[in-house]
Design a protein that fits this description.
- By secondary structure, the chain is of the alpha+beta class.
- It has two domains: 181 residues, 2-Layer Sandwich (BirA Bifunctional Protein, domain 2); 91 residues, Alpha-Beta Plaits.
- Helix content is 22%, strand content 33%.
- It contains six helices and 13 strands.
- A six-stranded antiparallel sheet has the order 4-5-9-8-7-6, with helices on both faces. The chain has a four-stranded antiparallel sheet with strand order 11-12-10-13, with helices on one face. A three-stranded antiparallel sheet has the order 1-3-2, with no helix packed on it.
Length: 287
Amino acid sequence: MKLIAESQIRDCLPIRPLIDGDLVKVARPLSEDHAILRPSLTPGLIATAENNLRQGAKTLRFFEAGRQFRNAGGGKATDLEADSLALLMSGGAQPPSWSREENRQIDLYDLKSAIQALLGGNAIQFSPRPREGFLIAGDIQLNGKPIGTYAQALPSRARELDCSTPLYLAELDLKKVLSLAKDFFQVEALPQFPGSSRDIAMELPVTTTNAEIEKALAKHNDPLLVSATCFDQFSDSSGEKMPANKKSIAYSFTYRSSEGTLKQKQIDASHDKLRAHLEKTLPVAFR
């Protein structure tokens, strides 16, 4: 349904935040539920989630591709139309199984993983940016350029929907997604030579986001560095084991060359350059 009620505006997650005058209202709506042309697809997904939750559904995974409508600049540009792709996720991260006593709940990283899979495995970044009406929110970036938004619904909104688990949303610019289609699912030959891994444990301010670390790594231009994986994080709000305003994050870095097996000296040189780069770009102390 391309028409929504005014009460559903709070569930909108448009790629560009709405301001006064951006809504396209129906002059003579047939009912209050069909008063506004939707400026985002997420209200429809939340309505679908609510219907399913009332039927007893425990895990939700929905998507919709369609058109949204809005003005821009507070009405300076009118009747704009664009295509979006929206996702909603909540509930158990895995199918129920007798072999697991507890099922992990879907979190923000599951949403990020689903979007990366949609984009053919291209690495994306979640860059935090507050949105009114959501607990957490931000921009989805690919190669430093925004392609969409993400958010977690407020707990109070989740309770209104009878949803007992965190509810995550995302909306992507479908035109930008489709323009990347030619880069999707590129096949690469298996590496002929072995790689070598090095770990780094970093102490950072507790306010440092993973997006900031990913941006710093993306700016490090070393053809031998083929992957970076975060495998541990620790913080102590009591301040007993480490300062309360700090956190420890551990990454594993893999180095490999397509021309031959790397020597110890080459790996050490690349790793030292990486450490120097991180020290220069982040408020980091190595543990």
